[in-house]
Amino acid sequence: ARNDISDHIGQPFFISKRTNDGLLHAIALVESKLYQCNGVEQAIVRPFTDEEGLSYMIAYVVPSRKDLKVSQVRKELSENLTSFMIPEFIVKMPQIPLNVNGKPDMERMPVVMKEGQAYERIG
């Protein structure tokens, strides 16, 4: 049986430390949908957990045009993903910072925290 992202469209994903495989599939699915959004040149999605143990995702996008609106990206994502798969925060970036190995440098990416809550990187 095939086991690629397209097999999971419309299926719920539960993001937790215990389900790394589901987490990776969820992130890959959301990133692939972001790349399909009009005006998105690059996209990276990362999971976080607040101090209450609730998971949330932050999407970092590099626009291909200056007039890209986060509301439009969110609208396009909502046409292809269930609501809990849409990143809670979408951050426009001029570019994705890279480490010495040429991979995204997550330490240099901004973290959006929910008010009054701590976070923990889970990815």
Walk me through the topology.
Elements: H1 20-35, E1 40-50, E2 55-63, H2 70-78, E3 89-92, E4 119-121
Parallel strand pairs: 2-3
Antiparallel strand pairs: 1-2, 1-4
Regions with little confidence, pLDDT below 50 for 5+ residues: 1-18
How far apart are the first and last residues' alpha carbons, in Å? 27 Å
Taking the sheet with the most strands, its summary is: 4 strands, mixed
Proportion of helical residues: 10-25%
Instruction: Please trace the helix and strand order, writing H or E for each element.
Output: HEEHEE
**Rg, nearest Å:** 14 Å
Total of helices: 2
Helix-strand makeup class: alpha+beta
- Overall mean pLDDT stands at 80
Tell me, briefly, the overall form: globular
Q: What fraction of the residues are assigned to beta strands by DSSP?
A: 15-25%
Across the major sheet, the strand order is 3-2-1-4
Number of strands: 4
What would your notes on this structure say?
By secondary structure, the protein is an alpha+beta fold. It is built from 2 helices and 4 strands, in the order H-E-E-H-E-E. A 4-stranded mixed β-sheet has the order 3-2-1-4, covered by helices on one side. Strand 1 and strand 2 (55-63) form a beta hairpin. Mean pLDDT is 80; it is low at 1-18.
Entry keywords:
single chain; 123 residues; alpha+beta; four-stranded mixed β-sheet; 2 helices; 4 strands; disordered N terminus
Short description:
The protein is an alpha+beta fold. Helices cover 20% and strands 22% of the residues. The protein is globular and about 35 Å long.
